[in-house]
Amino acid sequence: xxxxxxxxxxxxxxxxxxxxxxxxxxxxAEFNEIWATNPVRAPGxxxxxxxxxxxxxxxxxxxVLTVPDDDQQVVFxxxxxxxxxxxTLHHLSAISP
Length: 97
What we know:
By secondary structure, the chain is an alpha+beta fold. The protein folds into 2 domains: 1-41; 43-97, no CATH class. The chain is 43% helix and 26% strand. It has 4 helices and 3 strands. The chain has helices at 2-10, 15-27, 29-36, 84-95; strands at residues 45-52, 56-66, 73-78. It has a 3-stranded antiparallel β-sheet, covered by helices on one side. A hairpin with a 6-residue loop joins strand 2 and strand 3 (73-78). It is elongated. It starts with a helix and ends with a helix.
């Protein structure tokens, strides 16, 4: 939702985006409630847990860097050294072709 809000703020005259937002607003009270909170977050550091079907939960650091004057972002996913997730990722990299 935050990325959609950021796109709407960056492209206020985009007809396709405006149509999508109108459709979402008219079709979902939940969307309107969340939208009203103005969900915009600056890229930066976050932690995420990915649930792998065979390996279980992977606790990852997610660092997002924006490319100035562009819609691109560079995303780095890493694990804290010495953690079970770091060991799992190391093991995966060793067996990957």
